[in-house]
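[step 3/7] fold_predict: job queued, chain A
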Amino acid sequence: MPAASSLPSQPAARRRPLIELLTVAGCPNRDAALALIERIRAQLASTAQVQVIEVPDQPAAEQLRFLGSPTIRVNGHDIEPGAEHQPEYVHACRLYQGPHSLRGLPEADWLRQALRTAARDP
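[step 4/7] structure written:
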């Protein structure tokens, strides 16, 4: 029998993408954000796992690098382009810049793109 080190390597098993919805208690956009996630998952026939995380206070917000409620991350990455450059973590509501105004939800296309990228990454 050949030594384990001489066996051909097996391709790594693909893990399902993880979508995290981070919110604060009483967030008025929590349910709409969850509905957005479910709608985009269905459109893409995604098997991504969804996890809802309630951020209880400011220290938790800082520890989680939380940019406000609701925040959607795919495999640990905020779906908003450029979000990784935001230096301030807050236990508060979050607003997103839409094409014509501020909104309480991120763009659906950001989530679509994040899920497509996650599906390509090993």
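[step 5/7] annotate
The chain is about 30% helix and 20% strand.
The chain has one domain: 16-120.
exit 0
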